[in-house]
């Protein structure tokens, strides 16, 4: 699906200033100024999925700011779908100029050969990187190269259903809770009532707690699984302790929370851009800081950084870089925080404090909870890491059902992942 939009844009880095020359006119004593109007430029823009930048957010954060600042460019919003997935566009040699992706898509985009180090362009155009939180840029650099700039962060928190806590008379969760605390609350909320199985808590997926401990999936030098460790054993046992609470058997975490509404708490990344949809307006919810391991208090999973980059096939790299510079500017980031609920990667307290200020949806919500925890160091997933994650998904349920112990689980994951990694590296 594509949406063509006209937005204003200037050539070069001058912020929209146009030059001109003065020449005498045919009428004596008059001077006519000829303005150098920049040539029209067309760019294509594609997020990896709708949730990364919905079309209305694209209008608000890209189209409108650029209309105000720059003239004469057409930007086409290309939604991934049948025939327009990034693989399709690469095959058709029609890769969009601007691409939005998340940490889990890096290796896909890298292997498709569409990324480029934007550092020379950043230096040439004097893009101010000092506005970003230092750890943010450190976490997206790969071997010193910068392939993108972040425009949003998926901060982690506990989202909880106020109605279910009120229904069962359980105190609302608070920031600073440990996983042991969450287990106790989950036991009180997991019950069968009114012909409905209510569940207490779910985390996102079957490696999330290890991710929170910054545990490596693979040895990058040996290209082998590193899953058989005390750290992973601790993570798997804690996950099982949550998933085997009677009545709290694992389902679909996010869908159970805001569609079925039978889940009292979900530990998740930023759900606000989804919860602002009309169909979820009746859900009464609030947030608390993400739970942590007692040995690492107030440490949440790494932040999922949403990144925007320039494809290496673009014919207009400087114009594309101006779009990125404006999207990640303090002015537009404040609009994003206030109006879309996206946490900003900028080192700017005002942007942080005004999160959701213009959104009726989150007025009165404890939005400071997003910042009550510190994110664990980020992990730039390699293909080998993704192979290990798939092996975890493959065997974890068998472990949590009680048919194998944790050491057998880690052995099976390691063997399966190493086989997949071997196939991957011998292609």
TrEMBL record:
Matching Gene3D superfamilies: Periplasmic binding protein-like II
Membrane-crossing segments per the record: none
Highest taxon listed in the record's lineage: Bacteria
PANTHER family the UniProt entry points to: ARABINOSE-BINDING PROTEIN-RELATED, DIACETYLCHITOBIOSE BINDING PROTEIN DASA
Name of the protein in question: Extracellular solute-binding protein
């Amino acid at each position: 699906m594509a949406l063509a939009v006209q937005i204003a844009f200037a050539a070069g880095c001058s912020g929209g200033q146009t030059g001109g020359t003065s020449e005498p006119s045919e009428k004596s004593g008059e001077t006519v100024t000829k303005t150098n109007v920049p040539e029209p430029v067309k760019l294509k823009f594609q997020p990896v999925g709708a949730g990364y930048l919905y079309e209305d957010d694209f209008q608000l954060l890209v189209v409108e700011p650029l209309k105000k600042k720059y003239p004469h460019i057409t930007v086409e919003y290309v939604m991934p779908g049948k025939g327009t997935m990034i693989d399709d566009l690469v095959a058709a040699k029609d890769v969009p100029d601007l691409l939005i992706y998340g940490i889990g898509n890096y290796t896909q985009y890298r292997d498709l050969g569409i990324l480029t180090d934007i550092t020379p362009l950043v230096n040439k155009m004097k893009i101010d990187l000092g506005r970003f939180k230092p750890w943010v840029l450190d976490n997206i650099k790969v071997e010193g190269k910068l392939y993108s700039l972040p425009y949003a962060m998926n901060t982690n928190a506990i989202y909880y259903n106020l109605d279910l806590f009120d229904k069962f008379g359980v105190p609302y969760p608070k920031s600073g809770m440990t996983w042991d605390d969450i287990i106790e609350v989950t036991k009180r909320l997991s019950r069968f009532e009114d012909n409905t199985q209510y569940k207490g808590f779910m985390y996102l997926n079957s490696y999330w707690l290890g991710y929170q401990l910054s545990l490596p999936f693979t040895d990058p030098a040996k290209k082998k699984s590193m899953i058989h460790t005390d750290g992973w054993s601790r993570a798997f046992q804690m996950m099982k302790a949550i998933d085997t609470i009677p009545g709290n058997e694992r389902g679909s975490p996010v869908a159970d929370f805001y569609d079925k509404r039978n889940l009292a708490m979900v530990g998740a990344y930023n759900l606000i851009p989804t919860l602002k949809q009309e169909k979820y307006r009746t859900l009464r919810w609030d947030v608390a800081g993400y739970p942590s391991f007692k040995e690492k208090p107030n440490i949440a999973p790494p932040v999922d950084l949403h990144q925007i980059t320039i494809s290496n096939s673009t014919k207009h790299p400087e114009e594309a870089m101006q779009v990125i510079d404006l999207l990640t500017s303090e002015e537009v980031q404040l609009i994003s925080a206030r109006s879309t609920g996206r946490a900003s990667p900028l080192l700017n307290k005002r942007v942080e404090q005004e999160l959701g200020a213009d959104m009726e949806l989150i007025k009165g919500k404890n939005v400071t909870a997003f910042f009550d925890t510190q994110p664990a160091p980020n992990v730039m997933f390699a293909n080998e890491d993704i192979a290990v994650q798939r092996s975890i998904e493959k065997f974890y349920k068998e472990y949590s059902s009680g048919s194998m112990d944790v050491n057998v689980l880690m052995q099976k994951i390691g063997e399966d992942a190493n086989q997949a990694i071997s196939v991957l590296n011998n292609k």
